[in-house]
Amino acid sequence: MYDFLEQSTRLMRQAAELGNINSSVIELLSAPGRVVSFRIPLKMDDGSCRIFDAYRVHHNDALGPTRDGTRVSPELDLDECKALALVMSVKHAAGMIPAGGGKGGIAADPQKLSKREFEQLCRAYIRHLRPSGPDFDVPGADVGTDMQAMAWMLDEYEQITGRHTPAAINDKPPILGGTLGGYEATGRGVFDTFAAAAKDIGFEIEGATVAIQGFGQVGSVAAKSFQEAGCRVIAVREVDSGVYAEAGIDINELLEHREKTGSLADFPGTTAIDNDGLFGCECDVLVPAALQGVITEQNAGEIKAKMVVEGANAPTTLEAEEILIKRGITVVPDVLANAGSVHLCQMERTQGIADQFWDRETIESERCRRLINGYEAAAAMAKEHELKSVRLGAWINALKRIEEAVLTRGWC
After folding, report:
1. Choosing from 82, 91, 103, 224, which is the catalytic residue?
2. Do 34-175 and 179-412 fold alike per CATH?
3. What's the mean pLDDT in 391-410?
């Protein structure tokens, strides 16, 4: 069984040993600095009462306030939040963002709640979340939440405090102080980071074939970005359906088909494909953009792609990555490839505090620049340590920045 927390902690210790990170700092980072766990009673539309478990994990705030990630998922548990908060600390530090890792959410299924029930659950989460605020901990969107959920959370926070504080919540609509480009940030960032990696290894983008697992906000935007760059998307898979066409799939038409039918199935000119078929298909680039732990030592040997670009959090196990690297497959890691929204959240915070908002062109240019800088720094660190894993390069860079902050503060 995949243990996300164990994998993340093991990766941290491996990077720390390679980077010669202070042992006391690693001991500090081996567990969250603060864990908030609470229960939310909710009056349902039928008059009954249900109790929902909820969490918020603040991993480390040496570099700045903890930020990001509010999941609403029936499988959510505290260990998942701890692992995600650790990864967020690394993602911020690797991207040279002055923030720590925060993650949390509610164990619930949004699809089984009415709009009123879901709104009340989101508002209750903020009421129970103490402490919070722009200078301490800033929730953002994640699986099961969106801009509307963040709008409810921001309004609840402002109703409680009596102050307009747009920087208190990330990923909100622009009309409430959010940033432009938020919806596309992660998906476009997947392509931006892929392009930087392709340049680094001399990979030709034009005409490359691409297979994508996950066709939600991240996967669909990434698919369009690959297509616009001249790549040929040949396979797409989501939870209940998947399609394959050697000649390529028109992503805009596929999105229209799903909008009409509710599924990818029976898209004209394609054949059905399952996850095993997608991972094993002949392609140049494989983009896992759905779930964590889907590329394992059991299926890593079947992957035929030249590059794996991680659009999801931790889709590749450590054992699987070792197999891929030995087979000459380049892995572009999640802490770099899916960090587009993390950089957008930093820009959103900057704009909200300054009360000065940027145009889309400025935002997209800055996001791309930051992602490329993060990848190049990680690749350089990997080369310095004679490593083939850019992931380890990114983690070493991140841990060195956190180490410097912790030691400068005199905590260790």
Report:
1. 103
2. yes
3. 97
Neighbours of 157 (CB within 10 A): 21
How far the first Cα of the chain sits from its last, in Å, is 35
Q: Is 224 a catalytic residue?
A: no
Backbone Cα Rg of the chain: 21
CA distance 45 to 204: 55
CB 367 within 8 A of CB 344: yes
CATH homologous superfamily for 34-175? Leucine Dehydrogenase, chain A, domain 1 (3.40.50.10860)
pLDDT score of 1 = 66
Q: Fill in the amino acid letter for 269.
A: G
**Class (C level, CATH) for 179-412:** alpha beta
For residue range 130-176, list pLDDT tens digits in order: 878 889 999 999 989 999 999 999 999 999 999 999 999 999 999 99
- The residue among 289, 410, 380, 350 whose CA lies nearest residue 94 is 380
| pLDDT per position as a tens digit, 319-368 | 999 999 999 999 999 999 999 999 999 999 999 999 999 999 999 999 99
Tell me the domain boundaries of the chain.
34-175, 179-412
